[in-house]
Amino acid sequence: MLKNTLINRLTKDNPAISIRGDERFYWQPETLTVHYDLSETEHFNEYILHEMSHAQLSHQNSYSDIGLLRMEVDAWENAKVLALRYSIEISDEIVQNSLNTYRSWLYKRSLCPKCKSNGIQIHADIYCCTDCYSEWQVGNNVFSRCYRKNIDKN
Ligand SMILES: [Zn+2]
Ligand SMILES: [Zn+2]
User: Mutual orientation of helices 3-13 and 44-56 as an angle, nearest 10°?
Assistant: First the structure.
């Protein structure tokens, strides 16, 4: 299905959700907006269905990292159901790649900036090192980090 056709159908089928072109894919719960990467061509359909799934499942920003991974898995499961409706194919490979990227992003942000030990999450956006007891803040705009090109930004 063509990009614009899919965007039009998603807009019609999800009247409460705004869909906007942007620099990357992410779901913004505060404004009920799905943002899509204007430059994506190869996996546009799969990624926009994934973001729309976060929207349909009413995913919020304020979860623990374990909760975040759970939401990622749930969003892909929902995206597969949507894919059937719009005759789009979502390969297991793209799901696994996206989840692996997300896992390594979660892992990286749990590493202490001072001593590189593994920290524990003590708040939605704060980690504490179990070795040197440093605390550090992590971004809480978690939905903008699902894809590979965003991974080095944290
Ligand atoms: Zn996601
Ligand atoms: Zn440390």
Answer: 10
- 113 alpha carbon – ligand 2 mean position (Å): 7
Instruction: List, as ranges, residues with CB under 5 A of the ion ligand 1.
Output: 75, 146
pTM here is 0.84
- Span 68-109, pLDDT tens digits: 889 999 999 999 999 999 999 999 999 999 999 889 888 898
Q: Which residues surround ligand 2, an ion (CB under 5 A)?
A: 112, 114-115, 117, 129, 131-132, 134
- Rounded CA-CA distance 23/137 in Å is 24
The residue behind tokens 């550090």 is: 136
pLDDT in tens, 37-49: 999 989 999 999 9
CB 86 within 8 A of CB 49: yes
